[in-house]
5-dehydro-2-deoxygluconokinase
Amino acid sequence: MTYVTFPTGKSLDFTAIGRLCIDLNANEINRPMEETMTFTKYVGGSPANITIGMSRFGLKTAFIGKIADDQMGRFIADYLQKNHIDTTNVVTDHTGAVTGLAFTEIKSPTECSILMYRDNAADLRLTAEEVQEDIIAQAKVLLISGTALAQSPSREAVFQALQYAKKHGAVIVFDLDYRPYTWVSPEETAAYYNLAAEKCDIILGTREEFDMMERFEANPEHSDNVTASKWFDYSAKIVIIKHGKDGSIAYTKDGEGHRAQSFPAKVVKTFGAGDSYAAGFLYGVMQGWTLEKSMEFGSAAACIVISSHSCSDAMPSAEAVHDYIERCNRGEITAS
Amino acid sequence: MTYVTFPTGKSLDFTAIGRLCIDLNANEINRPMEETMTFTKYVGGSPANITIGMSRFGLKTAFIGKIADDQMGRFIADYLQKNHIDTTNVVTDHTGAVTGLAFTEIKSPTECSILMYRDNAADLRLTAEEVQEDIIAQAKVLLISGTALAQSPSREAVFQALQYAKKHGAVIVFDLDYRPYTWVSPEETAAYYNLAAEKCDIILGTREEFDMMERFEANPEHSDNVTASKWFDYSAKIVIIKHGKDGSIAYTKDGEGHRAQSFPAKVVKTFGAGDSYAAGFLYGVMQGWTLEKSMEFGSAAACIVISSHSCSDAMPSAEAVHDYIERCNRGEITAS
Amino acid sequence: MTYVTFPTGKSLDFTAIGRLCIDLNANEINRPMEETMTFTKYVGGSPANITIGMSRFGLKTAFIGKIADDQMGRFIADYLQKNHIDTTNVVTDHTGAVTGLAFTEIKSPTECSILMYRDNAADLRLTAEEVQEDIIAQAKVLLISGTALAQSPSREAVFQALQYAKKHGAVIVFDLDYRPYTWVSPEETAAYYNLAAEKCDIILGTREEFDMMERFEANPEHSDNVTASKWFDYSAKIVIIKHGKDGSIAYTKDGEGHRAQSFPAKVVKTFGAGDSYAAGFLYGVMQGWTLEKSMEFGSAAACIVISSHSCSDAMPSAEAVHDYIERCNRGEITAS
Amino acid sequence: MTYVTFPTGKSLDFTAIGRLCIDLNANEINRPMEETMTFTKYVGGSPANITIGMSRFGLKTAFIGKIADDQMGRFIADYLQKNHIDTTNVVTDHTGAVTGLAFTEIKSPTECSILMYRDNAADLRLTAEEVQEDIIAQAKVLLISGTALAQSPSREAVFQALQYAKKHGAVIVFDLDYRPYTWVSPEETAAYYNLAAEKCDIILGTREEFDMMERFEANPEHSDNVTASKWFDYSAKIVIIKHGKDGSIAYTKDGEGHRAQSFPAKVVKTFGAGDSYAAGFLYGVMQGWTLEKSMEFGSAAACIVISSHSCSDAMPSAEAVHDYIERCNRGEITAS
């Protein structure tokens, strides 16, 4: 059954708006960051990672965002271009903003944390006027990410992008990606997440992220059905609620909850799992696959990324994902 | 024909959320403010004035807002209570915010200006958590005012109030009341005005206010029909666009534009005209009158206020408005 | 004995830098402000009041400050000019700052309070570059006021003015005038008060103000001698410590503490007492009078002001002060 | 001749207050940072580097500063302790501030630049109350650094430290270390640099830094003599003005200008030259050496640091510096 119909006659498959930053990944791992002496630089930021993933799968993609006028910003733009992502709407800041940073700490494959630098981040300086309507007009899908809602003027830029996407019929995907540090208060967060989610066709988030959005609502048992129903009353067609190691469930307007198989992996770190899952899942849905097959593809893509050192650079090709699934099915891959 | 249906079985006729401030009106008028030596103090703020007007008409009203913890704040609360307005949800600030001020300058009946003090204003400190759901649940009408959208956390409080009003079936009225000084940029203003307007049943504003909201849209001829149609695609049933001395037009979903008779007045100043018009019009609509009769009642109420020294304190009773209309019809009142 | 020698050959007797604001004095007094309905507008701000006082005594004066680009700012400039105060260095703000306000509440002659509006005040926007060296070069005396140290860039403007005054040999007077509301913390306040006081020849303040400056020092018994001695180690020649109704003491470098006679008054309110005292005292010292006679003149000037409705407008002429002293001496004036 | 006398009977030789941060030095050098993929982490910040240098020379040292409550902050505290620096007065921030970062770019030995992260830096959150008087009371020398004056409350903490140093007779050294990015305006910078410099015994800076401080003064020919004389009128005994590759001159109150020999070096990068020079020079002066010999020692220490990858970690022992000088004198070291 088809839950979402994508527009045809568009020159771009996918565009995303929001955070572009630098990951500085610990080279010496399995120890506290205090004892890590060297770091390797990668492009990061959830919507950037997803876009890189989509491009690696062979889709035509573009990014809408803002970079600092410095070496880190230029590195990001170069990397996107090398990955065949259209950067026409990647604007350079001229206010002295800096590139957001994420230092990763990998104490063990399951104890990972991030030290964030988000003060005066360039990506949050994107304005509504800088969002190019024609990029969104050409795209089948617009993905928005919750971190871009954290501050003005980026917040207004996202609402403007939503307005353009509605006008031109793009399918809108909301990756909740809630990061408390850039927000003033949980009340403010809930307000803008809800206003944005009302306009979205596909919403992906963890149970905790949906709980945050229900701060002023009655869902005392944290019921997925109550959560999903609410959004089906607005624009949503698919609501994916992630329950950590208990797996993800894709709810659809017909009341169904779809689950998929998971795969073993030799886990290095957990970072990037969500982004690669989102990319894989959306790719599958855009190919017209069933939700189950799309979720399976997302899970396998995530396994590949969490077995590697980076998030963005490790994004696999579609062939690599298919191959991973086959090898798992043949029992060639076992968990670490 | 009935364009808006009001819920029944509610204990409150009307509630408003937003600005509560102090007007300091020049006692010596028809001169520049530099030469005004004494000022008289009144309660002010567009939603406060409208609520006072509704209460004077005999409706049961409540206000949702925030006052400074000082003499000005206490004066406001006292005045509302003396006017039979429920102040259960008028919260007192404890962060050291001050009461917004508006000094009026009346150089001549048609040359009026305002000197505003809006820095650190208490009314903009209202939070989403402070908005009481049960007040809105009991009310037939919720009126929001654009100035309350200008800053966090008041902005989120308004969106929360809209959420409660939708949930409980209150008719939502949006008085655009755009005041540039508290806003960061026109782009930010347009973003939040549009997000709020999508949820409203009745929208009142000047042509210039609607133009501001259409900053990112195509309405090059500033067509009222284009403007009104857009909002009918969302929740609106009535859109009133004011064209200054050319009069107001009430657009309805059936494509009609309704106009009403205007009245002569001995004008002292123009302040308060919009607020008394809004109160009179809404009162009429709530009585089940035609739009034309409601607009006429609003116009007559406005004539009474602009013939007086204050905005809030001059709000007339329904009898006084009816009497004014009759006297006009008998030719007893002529323009100044 | 001469404690301070004033430079000769200067075209200006006195200049002050700092706060220029508007007092809005309750017309209906002896009640809480909630019940006051009308207010009268006066120029206010401690250094402005002192300068007006000096000008009324017949001295040649100038003011260094910043006014809002609005009706209140223009009223202030006009009033200073009408009082023969040179406003060459009264700069107009162009950033949208407002005029500071002080609403007075007079519950009884001894229960007076002030409701201040100091957010985004124009006087605190004065920059170091705007301070004109030649005004200070021409002046015998520069008076600084503590409120101007509360924020950048006004704080730096004061330090620049002190630098010019040192360079050109002006006698520097520091009126502590500590008002907590514009300061971030007591630690910050103490830091800048002390840095400024090190450079001053005459320091006037209450015991409480000097206590605030000694936050990081050892003066557990709040000894005036400990306080005064500290400043004599820097530049001070006279330190006046005010003990409220117990009177003021002028300490001098020779270890003496000078006291003066006080006078009865029909008190309306206590506002303005300190400013008129400062003006009267400094006038006396500049005339070469003894400290005791100068303090007496200051006390009498204060009596006149506290018997009136305003602070600035009530500043007396020298003749009026002499006359008041004589009438007191003849027993014609008794306390209220 | 002895220009500065150090107090005796103190348990600490040296303490410094101010910036503590992390340097992230490019591992792949001689290229733009865009092409650098890995970075190595070091403790950084001018006063931290100088203190590490003094400790390596065998002096008893302490640091007064503030670190972020994160892995970077803990790494800094650990590193100081391992270098035998007393961290009793290294306070941990609890407001969510981050550790300042400096990414270095080494395009060639002479084309070096820094990409700074100074927003919300923990070191600038040190308060006056947190400065421990007894640390300063025990120290022969207090070194302050200009960057700590850039913002409140760190600025007030420095002035409080100066107050304690004056009270307890410590020799005060001011390392100008002017970094424009954390300052609001050049006028603000000049104001606080001058207020601090008035209280210092030894001042070190580049000609450009002294020019910045003379923004409001008349020194059109940028004369070193005019500059030095000004500070001798306050507390200064030695003023070192650095003229880049033309060498440094140490001015003394007797009107003399002292110069010293320089040494060849195999330069990797120029970072850290000033800090190691300052450490070496101060060490020499504290040993009672002539200014010339002290400057020579500073120059040799600088040569060692600029031949290495880091600033802090490369700080040499006194033996290593003596050895370097001897090898230079024997002609064993030549310039790169």
About this structure: The interface with chain B takes residues 127-129, 152-153, 155-156, 159-160, 163, 184-185, 187-188, 190-192, 194-195, 216 of chain A (CB under 8 Å).
